[in-house]
Design brief:
- The protein has eight helices and 15 strands.
- It has two domains: about 170 residues, SMI1/KNR4-like, CATH 3.40.1580.10; about 110 residues, no CATH class.
- Helices cover about 20% and strands about 25% of the residues.
- The chain has about 300 residues and is α+β, with helices and mostly antiparallel strands.
- The N and C termini lie far apart (about 65 Å).
Length: about 300
C-alpha cells in the first residue's frame, strides 16, 4: 500500500513484536490493510492515523504485543510508574477490537463516556476502566497526536504517556521489567459505599461482545478516587431472580435458588478472575462465581 508520510520503525524489528494466540486472532487480528480500508476508517474516525500506526498494521493488523507495558512519569490507577495494555486495535471494523469494531474507539466514547479527544487504540487489563488513546487536541485531526492514558476510575484523568505512536511502540517493555516494583505495591482499598451504589442486571445488545452482566455504578465522595462504573460478567445461562443490596453487599439470586454476594472483600478477586486470560466460556464463568461469590446456605 502506497502512503508515505515518513519512514516509521527504521532499525526496529517488528517480526517478533506480536504474540500469537487463538484469542488474539479471533478478537484483534484483521485482514491486511488496504488503501480503501484505511480511507474508510479515517473517514469514520475523522482523523489521519499516524504513519507509524499504518506501518505497524501493514506488518500485522492488530493483535497482542509480546511487550505490554510502557513507563509513565506519574502514577495511574494501574501502577506508580507504568501503564499496561491488553492489545492494539486493528484498522477496520471486522474484529471486536478494531478501531471501528464493536468495542472500538467510538463505542468507548458513546457507551463508557470517554472524552472525545481522538482515537482509543489500546484497551487495558481493567476491561474498559482505563484506555490508551491518540490525543489530537493540540495537533488537530491531520497532525501527529500524542499518546495518553485515560482513566475512567479517576474521573477520566488524562495522563501523557508518549510523544508519538511510534515512540509508544518502541517504548513497550515486558512484565519482568516491573516485577520487583509491582511486588512491593500495596493495593489501595476498593472504594465501596453502598448508599452511593446502584446495580442492575443487563444483557449486551445483539451482536455486542458483552453478554449478561451486572452494571454497577458508584458516586464517589468529594476528592475521592476509585471506580465509578463496573460491568461484571455473569454466566449467560443464568436466569436472575434478583440483584440488589443486602446490608453492605450486592446479592445476586438465581431463579434456581443459588445466591451469590459481592462486597469489598471479594469484588476484586472475582473481577480479576473473570478478566484474566481473555474471554471466558459459560462453564468457566460459573466456576468463577461459585469459587469467589457463592453463599453457602448452611452458613446463613
Amino acid at each position: 500500500m502506497n502512503r508515505k508520510r515518513s519512514t516509521p520503525f527504521a532499525g526496529f524489528d517488528l517480526r517478533g513484536f506480536w504474540k500469537d494466540s487463538k484469542y488474539a486472532r479471533k478478537e484483534y487480528v484483521d485482514a491486511p490493510v488496504t488503501a480503501a480500508k484505511l480511507a474508510r476508517v479515517e473517514r469514520a474516525l475523522k482523523v489521519k492515523l499516524p504513519a507509524a500506526y499504518v506501518a505497524l498494521a501493514e506488518a500485522q493488523n492488530g493483535g497482542i504485543p509480546v511487550k505490554t507495558n510502557h513507563r509513565t512519569t506519574e502514577r495511574t490507577s494501574w501502577s506508580e510508574d507504568h501503564v499496561a495494555i491488553s492489545g492494539i486495535c486493528s484498522i477496520g471494523d471486522a474484529k471486536t477490537y478494531g478501531l471501528c469494531g464493536q468495542l472500538g474507539s467510538q463505542f468507548m466514547i458513546d457507551e463508557w463516556g470517554y472524552p472525545s479527544i481522538g482515537v482509543y487504540f489500546a484497551n487495558c487489563p481493567s476491561a474498559g476502566h482505563d484506555m490508551i488513546g491518540l490525543d489530537y487536541r493540540a495537533c488537530g485531526p491531520e497532525g501527529e497526536p500524542t499518546v495518553v492514558h485515560v482513566d475512567q476510575e479517576r474521573d477520566y484523568k488524562i495522563t501523557f504517556v508518549a510523544p508519538t505512536f511510534e515512540s509508544f511502540i518502541r517504548g513497550l517493555e515486558p512484565d519482568a521489567a516491573f516485577a520487583d516494583d509491582d511486588a512491593d505495591d500495596t493495593p489501595a482499598p476498593i472504594a465501596w459505599h453502598p448508599e452511593a451504589i446502584t446495580v442492575r442486571v443487563e444483557r449486551g445488545q445483539i451482536g455486542m461482545h458483552v453478554g449478561l452482566h451486572l452494571h454497577i455504578t458508584q458516586k464517589l465522595r468529594r476528592n475521592e478516587t476509585g471506580w465509578t462504573m463496573m460491568k461484571v460478567e455473569l454466566p449467560g445461562s443464568w436466569r436472575i431472580a434478583r440483584a440488589g443490596f443486602v446490608g453492605s453487599d450486592i446479592v445476586v439470586r438465581r431463579k434456581t435458588g443459588q445466591t451469590y454476594r459481592l462486597g469489598p472483600d471479594n469484588f476484586g478477586a472475582l473481577d480479576s478472575a473473570i478478566l484474566d486470560d481473555g474471554e471466558k466460556t459459560d462453564r468457566e464463568l460459573v466456576a468463577i462465581w461459585e469459587k469467589h461469590a457463592r453463599i453457602d446456605p448452611k452458613a446463613r
